[in-house]
Amino acid sequence: MCGISGVVGLKNISELLFEGVRNLEYRGYDSCGVALMNKTRLIIKKDTGGVEEFYRKHNVLQLKSKIGIAHTRWATHGKVTQNNTHPFTSSDGNFAVVHNGIISNYRPLREQLKKEGFKFSSETDTEVLAHLLEKLYKRSRNVEKAFVKMLNLIEGTFSLAFISSYLPEQIFCAKRESPLMLGIGDEIKFVGSDFNAFLDHTKNAVILDDDEYAILSRDTYVVKSLLSKEEVTKPIIKIEWDSETSKKGGYPHYMLKEIYEQPQTVSNALDLEASGLDEIVDLFAKSRNSYFLGVGTTFYVAKYAKYVFSQLAQEFFPSVSSDEFMVLANVNKQSLVFALSQSGETFDTLSALKYAKSRGARTAAVVNVMGSSIARLVDKVVLQGSGPEICVISTKAALSQMVILTVLAMKLALKKKVITRKTYNQYLQALQELPEIIQGILNERSGFIHRLASKYSGSRNWLYLGRGVYYPIALEAALKMKEVAYIHAEGMPGGFLKHGTLAMIDDDVFSIVFVPPPEDKALYELTLNSIEEIRARSGFVLGIHFTEQGKNQDLYSEELILPKVHPLTAPLIQLVIGQLFAYFTATSLKRNIDKPRFLAKSVTVA
Amino acid sequence: MKAIILAAGEGTHLSPFSETRPISMIGVAGRTMLDNTFALLKSAGINDIFIVVGHRKDKLIERLQQQDHNGLNLHYVEQKRKLGIGHAVMQVKNKISPGEYFLLLYGDTLTAENIFSKVQQSFHSFKCPVASICLPPSNQMFGNVFLNARMEITKIVEKPKGNNLGNYVLSGVFILPASFFKLLESSGNSMEKALKKVVAGEGLRASMWEDEWLDVVYPWEILTANKMIMDSWQESSIAKTATLEANVTLQGIVHIKAGAIIKSGAVLEGPCCIGEGSYIGNNSLIRSYTSVGKNCSVGSGVELKNCVVMDNSQIGRLSFVGDSVLGENVDMGAGCMTVNRTVDWKPISVKNGKRPMGTGMKKLGAFLGDGVVVGAGNTLQPGTVVAPGKILPACYSVTQK
Description:
Chain A is α/β, with parallel strands linked by helices. Chain A folds into three domains: 3-238, Glutamine Phosphoribosylpyrophosphate, subunit 1, domain 1, CATH 3.60.20.10; 247-419, Glucose-6-phosphate isomerase like protein, domain 1 (Rossmann fold, 3-Layer(aba) Sandwich), CATH 3.40.50.10490; 445-606, Rossmann fold, CATH 3.40.50.
């Protein structure tokens, strides 16, 4: 079992050949070798060991060539030694052969060749091929004829390739039972034991059948039948392959990858340098008339911040959407304007910050992209360290910002002595448990959420309801649904229902309610009231809650029960559910997940 | 890369179709599940295929020898004793060289899109053992996995207990190294234990499969499988040698294969498929999600709807077959009806063996094994299962004195 790789192109192919043979290493890896061509002279390098080790040891990448074949071997005939490693050359050095399979009649062929004076340097079955080529070439002075003659002489299973100094721009190859395929590129051709050898460079493959041989040059190729000697028209198979897969780490979409990265990004957020956060807390403490600023998702993060600062630190800072900031906010030298942006390039937020600065206000921001315009503009910046967020729809960056803002609120509360050190530590403990809880939710609930989402993916209207801090969660979860699934989803406070919205309730309007844990008694009961109001009108309610199953059994049309958690982190966990619900709704509607229509990742225009 | 297809299992839940064939020989959407797998493997660039056969192996081998596999190298390996999946995998041990990776797949699972390309892509980027995982339609599945953000499987558990659970599960497609055989040996040929050892040792990466996926376990899931494949069709095809008489109506995506004859007045509502050499009588109505196999005869005025009719079967004139599966060589007399719902629209249960089993489906007809003869004028209760070879006498309202 071995791997064969070959490339012929317009420029130096050394690197491509290395990639190709490395990608075939799974087929065996006790020794490795290459044959390259310097003008019309063959250069052979081979040794025992793995592909990378061999390349490093012999500086193979330093050798430049427009054509080459390589081999990774798992010994079948002969020991693992440098001598037994492919490629094998003919005595005159004009042919270099790599081979996968077993030549069953190599012993008689070898004896015959020995008698004729050919010297063998190895114990392998493959070496006879090189000598045979030399011998047969001398008769006909035609490489192809010699090749065909040789193929007719050998028995057994093989896929093989060779290059020859007589035709220094062509690769010859053939197969019987062992696999071999061609990769067809523009001005470049590949041969490989399978398409792992070349698929990073072309998706067009020609699969050779038994007793076919092929001749490749950079601009053309021909496949012929060994039996009929005639050219065979082979279909080009388009290999289904998503070249982004490896960048997506095996995930089907960046959005899911980024949702799955949240345990890590939350941890990163909790590991941020305390001093940087303390400086921001000081700014909050000494400012009056402060604002949270964001737009789109970050506006909802700002709204969330408004609630946690009020709850924990007993401070009310309005949240303002960046695009409305200039007409709405009254900033002065006493103000702190605290902005949120993933990219740090958001045009509306940048303009609002510039305006605030021009009025003498202090500015600070949480951003994900280091060195971005907002990061450079503000007086104090927190880099959230969530790693690149590629999906247009923000998930991990938003959740991390929420965690950071929760920590800032806790710190301000502690500084103001609104909470004790003990309470602070309890809160911190709750946050530190968050990554593991999220990991558990992702692992154990995805399937359930997926089933719910598929079942209701036909719904065209959703109300997302929450009270208190669950209201911004409802807004943000609804925005996910709008962005990725293109479905109308309206986030609103639960209390709004009876002031108008309730009139809409019918069979076509579905509601999701973010129910607080029962320990949050007042908010919990108010939320249940909202649900009753919908249910009394025979409306559909999906409840996302933390109470045991069986309790309030008839309250929900569908329910998603979450494990008991600290009330501080409960809304953040529900946001993760909201993200997954939107994601699976979108996949069942076959939406363009990572690049939803009409949207762009960082909105840098007015 | 070599592929190993496990096709030896008995699939007893699939009675009355499993008695006479391996599961992978069940025909859906005009071809066997195995043919569907072959097509996907081929376009994933895999052409060396080892099939582990056992239960009803002759049927599989005979069938495959009759057809052209354009370039696929098929090899058969027999599992002589029914000793489970791990034991089946062990049968190919000597076909895989040390250090070599191979693609392993369960023959009773089905996808419309190319799961093999996907799992190879994951393998290509991770360069270590890979298991395809998916979110199944129910949480009663085995092989629930836990992942971390790097797609490493951290834990495999059997049916977990608790509310609202739903893990990703192993979807029966793996890329494993030859060393896996050693792990199997040391685990008493238990696939589950050996996989857990991979997780604990070298590591097992996940390849997330998001498209439709189905493990065909119960006979009514043949209909789900049929629909899944037909939903993936992009275009119609009508063989040159098919005959369509005047006033035949075709709507939607329709596949009509070589030598089929569609008589005047027939209406074909796609997606549907008429197999090689089959006959569709005058004024018959072939509704969506109908798959008619090779050499079948559908009499005049017959209505077919969401059903799978396997090769060489006949349906007599003025019959209705809906939400049903008919095996091979079924002979249904004239004027038969598979009733496909109850009067109160309650979900239909199927009595297959001793206990009735809920299907959750409100419309379901009958399941007739190979060679069943249904006499003329019979009306079959929803969810009826008829064992292969059984003869149901005709049902007359007036008889000779």
